[in-house]
Fold these 2 entries.
Entry 1:
Amino acid sequence: MFSKSRPSDPVPQPKPTPEPASDLRPAAPAGSAPSAAAKPRPAASVLSSDLMVTGNIRSTGDIQVEGTVDGDVRAQTLIIGESATVKGEVVADELIVHGRVTGRLRGVKIRLSATAKVEGDVVHKTIAIESGAHFEGSVHREEDPLTKGGKPQPPRLTGPSPAKADETAG
């Protein structure tokens, strides 16, 4: 009935149970191949309303700003809360502005909510500006707005027209 286990016998290991997904984003569309190293996304980093940051902030994850930032901010997804103020360039794949930004905004998908106050240029692929948003600046659409300054335009080379070249030759 009871016996000693032999050292060569494998010890039964409990099977790992899958953890519930903490990411509330929609799943990848059907037909797309799941990545081999799919990791759950960590929660967004929150800069609370009593926090003042002087300097640049860079993250490969998500950031939610509720305080004041005097510097550039770069993130995957960036939410600027109603009480937030950012003075500097803001770059994100997805950018949602509820507060105040003074500086350039660059993003693939940008949304200015009704409470947004933006003073600066916007470079985007898609943009939504809600009624009531305050915006002063220019808007430029680019296929890849995350590259600094967008795609460089080739210089235009202009030479004399054929009619003028004939006049100067004879």
Note: The longest strand covers residues 73-80.
Entry 2:
Amino acid sequence: MSDGENDKQQTELVPYSIGYGRLPSEHRFQKGRSGNPNGRPKRPKVKKKEFDPILRPTDSLILEEAYRPVTIREGDKTIELPAIQASVRALAIAAMKGSRLSQKQLSDIVRSVEEKRHTEQLQLLETMIEYKQKMDRRVGAAAAFSDYGTRSCSPARRYISRPTPRHGRNRRPGG
């Protein structure tokens, strides 16, 4: 066979030249069929967190930051304390150095905390007085009714245990 016949045979088998950018027809994209059958994966849907005012996310964030431990240096020592305590300490130091704004803020903070404690103590005292008056009325009513009634109004009575018998007299049968 001559070289001309080989070339002729090859051109009969392949109707066009094959090379870079010229794929055989069986390997080309077919009509009606996608080149990417699965397609690009869809992004996962991120659910937006619904705002729930009951949870108070801002309050929890503020408290988390306020009680976050920070390290401060005092002289040669390093101390770890909550951020809120460190800021109050810094405010007190600035007030002692003579900053009028810091002095006013510190005195306002101390005054409000003292007032809050005072009102809480007054509420507790009022509650205790109401409880005592209520119990005195119950004791008086029970004493007028019978002797047994005075024992039932003791608030801690149910927590007091009775002594167990030492002898075999008051034992349950089979025990």
Note: The chain has a mean pLDDT of 80.
